[in-house]
């Protein structure tokens, strides 16, 4: 076998390891859903009536029904951010538990330890997103997407999950303890609030609006909104892919460099 | 560096090549010098024990030899490969069992072994066979389908070692393989390690337990503050310390006095009513000693035999007992 074949087969082995872990402890995946579900219910049933009216007539009549549609992309991004959190924790746990030291003393494709985590986390994020869409439908989310648009939306979700995962793998490697690995990606969970996730950006004060319009979550949420609900996407699609690719690359390089260093802390 | 024979003309050439050679190995973490010019050679099929207290640099040494971290200076050859230039060559020849169990606690014992088999690209059938073989050999068959997180300390350690053996390594590194185990599990581990030797595997072992090194190793080096302060066979090391003795305790001072007179040797201690008599530790000399006391009807309340162990060696070569802990960096 060639080096590339080894890299692929070792990555597949590590991916199977992650899948087994996820299947054995579904509690971890479920835990990932708790916060997005809580926010979804809170925002649809508590704030939704009022916030929906504030969206204006363009959002389709206003009220709770309109808000359920509006909030869904933000909730999906929040789900992905929670997944990033979990990835950082599981990488940090691996690092502290000695199994990675074993992998490092074996003649295997080195990066496979990390790619196993990445593939596992992206699959987990996709499953979690599908579950969230299902719950969204139960509370009034009514997407109008065609099959092609669904695939495009799933692709974007996967791409963002991929970017978040590489970033959080690096965070998991950098973190000195499992606790700090769980705290470091925490801000990601709140970034949908500081974008177009819960209210349109033009309702924000100008200084916050500038941040909201230039941070990556806004184009991601706007693109998802466009794909699932038919609002205009414009340049947000390209910007979305650019942000995700950039973050994935930066996270990958950071993680790889960190992993190749001597594991002495 | 001893020139390694490059020919592969059968086993003889390989047997002549040491499994591990190290020359001038040094490593420091910042200002803290952990290893300071270590030289050593481990011939194939032998066991080498690295003995030292906590923080002596044992784990650092294993980490360097097993390609986990890089040395600052020195020449290293593991199975003929240089860990700095060809780490994968080294990795393919070694198995490592660390001080902290490197098992996946969420997977079962069997899954852990199959994971290793997959990473060694053994193929499905060979992998299953190898896993089954190791589960049987390490007495883990009953627990094979239980998550490793539920294992006892001894079982975890056995699984850990089994995982290191999946790829049939020629050289096995054992970093404190029995630390924290109860005496029974420790015995089991020793049996397993001796079994490996019978297969011709070279073993590099670190331990804080002097008895363990004595029990398992062909050669022992005592590591203290980054240097070897003693090296040799267990017997050679033991010869460097005062011999063994028997301690006899008596009910009263009269017993002690008459015993000292009868035997004509030994150091009496009037306070504890004990007599310390030099002995070679053999059963015959012990019996003769007791017979003589019995002939004089001298009652012995208590008796203990002290044979020199490697604790005595450590004290003799470093001037400090092993319990003195050097702060771990």
Task: Describe the protein's topology.
The complex is a heterodimer of chains A (265) and B (329).
Chain A: H1 3-24, H2 26-54, H3 63-96, H4 99-104, H5 112-138, H6 147-174, H7 178-183, H8 186-190, H9 206-214, H10 217-229, H11 236-260
Helix pairs in contact in A: 1-2, 1-5, 2-3, 2-5, 3-5, 3-6, 3-10, 5-6, 6-10, 6-11, 10-11
Chain B: H1 11-16, E1 20-29, E2 32-42, E3 47-51, H2 58-65, E4 73-78, H3 87-93, E5 94-97, H4 109-119, H5 124-137, H6 153-165, E6 171-175, H7 183-198, E7 202-207, H8 210-216, E8 219-224, E9 227-232, H9 234-239, E10 245-250, H10 253-263, E11 267-269, E12 274-278, H11 283-295, E13 300-306, H12 310-318
Parallel strand pairs in B: 3-7, 3-8, 5-6, 6-7
Antiparallel strand pairs in B: 1-2, 1-4, 8-9, 10-12, 10-13, 11-12
Helix pairs in contact in B: 4-5, 4-6
Explain this structure.
The complex is a heterodimer of chains A (265) and B (329). By secondary structure, chain A is mainly alpha-helical. Helices cover 77% and strands 0% of the residues of chain A. Chain A has eleven helices and no strands. The model of chain A has no long low-confidence stretch (mean pLDDT 89). Chain B has 329 residues and is α/β, with parallel strands linked by helices. Chain B is built from twelve helices and 13 strands. In chain B, strands 5-6-7-3-8-9 form a six-stranded mixed beta sheet, sandwiched between helices. In chain B, strands 11-12-10-13 form a four-stranded antiparallel beta sheet. In chain B, strands 2-1-4 form a three-stranded antiparallel beta sheet, with helices on one face. The longest helix of chain B is centred in the middle third of the chain and has 16 residues, at 183-198. Chain B is globular. Classes of the chains: A mainly alpha (265), B alpha/beta (329). The A-B interface holds A 1, 6, 9-10, 13, 16-17, 20-21, 24-25, 97-99, 101-108, 262-264 and B 29, 66-70, 88-89, 91-92, 94, 96, 98, 100-107, 111, 115-116, 118-121, 147, 163-164, 167.
